[in-house]
Amino acid sequence: MTPDLAREIMDLTLEHLVLVGVSMGIAVAVAIPAGILLTRRAPLQRWVLGFANVMQTVPSLALFGVLIPLPFIGGIGKHTAIIALVLYALLPVLRNTLTGILGVDPAVRESAIAMGMTGRQLLFEVELPLAARTILAGVRVATVTTIGTATIAAAIGGGGLGVFIFRGLASVDTTLLLAGAVPAALMALLADGGLGWVERKLSRA
Amino acid sequence: MTPLVSFQNVSYRVGGKDILRELNLDIESGETLVLLGRSGSGKTTALKMVNALLRPSAGEVVVEGTPTASWDPIRLRRRIGYVIQEAGLFPHFTVEGNVGLVPRLEEWPPEKIQARVQALLEQVGLPAEQFAARYPRELSGGQRQRVGVARALAADPPLLLFDEPFGALDPVTRVELQRQFLELRRRLGKTAIFVTHDVREALLVATRIALLHNGRLAVLATPAEFLRAQGEEARAFLACLDSQAEPA
Fold first, then answer.
1. Which candidate, A128, A2, A30, A18, places its Cα nearest to that of A87?
2. B164's torsion region: left (phi>0), alpha (psi -120 to 50) or beta?
């Protein structure tokens, strides 16, 4: 491996991490509050979950492509890639937030209300702590998926490890393909292991 | 003297079905009123109206002279202890966290909460040094129920609601907890509304028994009077006493 390649791997890995980090940050910031809101608005659940479901079924390359011509959010580059990645990551986090909170034992919820907890206290002291593990499992699935999907971001100029993969595909160069695929796979494994570890910590508490 | 709790023409309908029909019932300070009835008789529904978990479709439930609809539900509930089957303890809180919850919500100083929790755990027969730091899953069913009772007593509420609290326990533990209930009542003099479908339990703990049948008040009597009660539903319950089988 030439020093140049090693350096480029470092740079693109970092870029990949930023793509994933920013996308996951936004997805979590949107999906957890949205999930909480949905537990209070049962009629909306079908619509919002339906939207998130549809987003997941759109092939990733197509979604990136579809976003390009859109005004404001579209175009070539990182922000379009991030929007697409966020759309993908929403569903697992949203769905797990909803299942986690709705899965709290009704007797426990009733006790909390009967003991005079306010809506806020019920949420922060009972529902969220008890749902934390399920929510985190959703974040973990979404993160691992996003690390993989983010390689496609290179197709619309989003950068990241996908740059190697597309370059390797174009020039039929296995070294380049591996230079993209191996760090991405390692990143996914690390994220999975790390978040899994936090999940187990939480389940013991 | 005004009753502590008063049901005034209370009805409850849900999905076109009458769960309670024009219930009139006064609960005086210091008594233990047992709501006895079969599944679906409306007894739990009536209980949940007292702490505004449910609202009457018609009529009103008056607590300490004020209709529940006019109470701030949070304030009302913090003045009423609530014990349910399987205790409904918070699985992510220790025993201490569970028992000290209402005092903490009421923003008592931490030392006062700790002292209160210790005293309560002693009262229900669970030494604090041994049990305070445990989680509910590390307790037996009977111990969980004791914690549930301690939690309900925490902020010293004048009124306690029990919804089949001992229903899921084995017969031996149930009898132990019934004794403890009587002992605590003798010592603390609290008012209690106690829901059960077990006529033996009703006769044991009640100062008065209200028998509900299909959402209506069928009998209202002291345990001694209840034993002589006529009426089909009362006889059906009293027949359980003669059978050798353990009441379900």
1. A30
2. left
Check if the beta carbon of residue B229 is closer than 8 Å to that of residue B219: yes
Structure confidence at residue A92 (pLDDT):
92
A175 touches chain B (CB under 8 A): no
Specify the CATH number for B1-72+158-167+176-248; select among 3.40.50.300, 3.40.50.970, 3.50.50.60, 3.40.50.1370.
3.40.50.300
CB contact under 8 A, A111 and B89: yes
Instruction: Indicate yes or no: CB of B84 within 8 angstroms of CB of A107.
Output: yes
Which residue spans of chain B are classified as CATH 3.40.50.300? 1-72+158-167+176-248
Considering only the beta carbons, identify the residue of B53, B91, B105 that sits closest to A114.
Answer: B53
In sequence order, which residues have a C-beta less than 8 Å from that of residue B128 and are 6 or more positions away? B96, B117, B118, B121, B122
pLDDT computed for residue B61 by the predictor: 96
Please check whether residue B85 is in contact with residue B194, taking contact to mean a CB–CB distance below 8 angstroms. Answer: no
A112 part of contact set with chain B, CB < 8 Å? yes
Q: What is the pLDDT of residues A52-81, one digit of tens each?
A: 788 778 887 888 888 888 877 777 888 888
CA distance A26 to B37: 54
Distance CA A156, CA A161 (A): 13
pTM above 0.90, yes or no: no
Can you give the pLDDT at residue B74?
Answer: 95
Q: What is the predicted ipTM?
A: 0.89
